Amino acid sequence: MRAGMALWLLLGGVCGALSADEAAGRSEPMPRELEGVGVEEKLGQRVPPGLRFRDHEGNGVTLGEYFGRGRPVLLTLNYSNCPMLCHLQLNGLVEALKQIPLNPGREFEILTVSVDPLETPQRAKQTHEKYLELYERPAAGAGWHFLTGNEPEIRALAESVGFGYRYDPGTKEYLHVAAAMILSPDGMTTRYLYGIQYDPRTLRFSLIEAGRGRIGTSMDRLLLYCFHFDSSRGRYAPAAFRLMQIGGVLTVGLVGVVLLAFWRREGRGRDGTGAQA
Questions:
Q1: What is the pLDDT of residues 193-218, one digit of tens each?
Q2: How many CA atoms are closer than 13 Å to the CA of 119, on its beta-carbon side?
Q3: Do 270 and 222 have their domain in common?
Q4: What share of the chain is helix, strand, coil (3-state, %, to 5)?
Q5: Mean pLDDT calculated for residue range 220-228
Q6: Where residue 67 sits, what CATH number does that domain have?
Q7: Is it the case that residue 248 has pLDDT exceeding 90?
Q8: How many whole angstroms separate alpha carbon 272 and alpha carbon 263?
Q9: In terms of domains, do 45 and 90 share one?
Q10: How does the average pLDDT of the chain come out, rounded?
Q11: Distance (Å, rounded) from C-alpha 47 to C-alpha 263?
Q12: Starting from the edge strand earliest in sequence, which strands make up the sheet with 179-183, in order?
């Protein structure tokens, strides 16, 4: 039974977290084990800042504390005793984070909130240390926060971002999918990333976009202008029209430089001829 449930969890993550609307449109019924599990995207909605949690050091915190720092936030909902999917998701997230130059605690924050109300801060701290070691950026510890809390607060946060999960008393496990939410510095959900592997470019652009120009280099922002988010593929793809615009501007600029050089050379030639006469 445990192996079968783990398979459902893995399938739920790999299939990209079907939303409730998508599930309703399917001809075949959802498996009973996955009823109420999925993601209903709530882009543009803010998370409740007054929700109270405990961080991995055991300190009482409010959710709003992480959104008053002028940095975007990467949010995941997991739990430390998850038998499979959470570990696969967080491992995949770390691999993508390693490949981007942005750093937690400096350009953005990471919140990993446990869906298990019985998880203790001590257990969360162990998980925090495990993934920091895997990340290999010790300074990131100040920007990656593992939170635990009570059921009402956890449920309220999950509902605010459309993250559906439920507890299975038979296996004593939480059924959920693998999804990461990107939120703006004021707590508004701007992007959903699904699965257990994350494209580094998509992760980077999502954070820069959510940061509203406050993070990333000028080149990052130029590249973001050249790409748009393809929701059907779940990643950023080149924006043909924007590339044409930039290509046109560069072409006009190049022609202008060539003409200016030509005119200057012609002017010097005429001056020289007049002097000899």
A1: 999 999 998 999 899 888 875 544 44
A2: 29
A3: no
A4: 45, 20, 35
A5: 51
A6: 3.40.30.10
A7: no
A8: 14
A9: yes
A10: 79
A11: 60
A12: 144-147, 109-114, 73-78, 179-183, 189-194
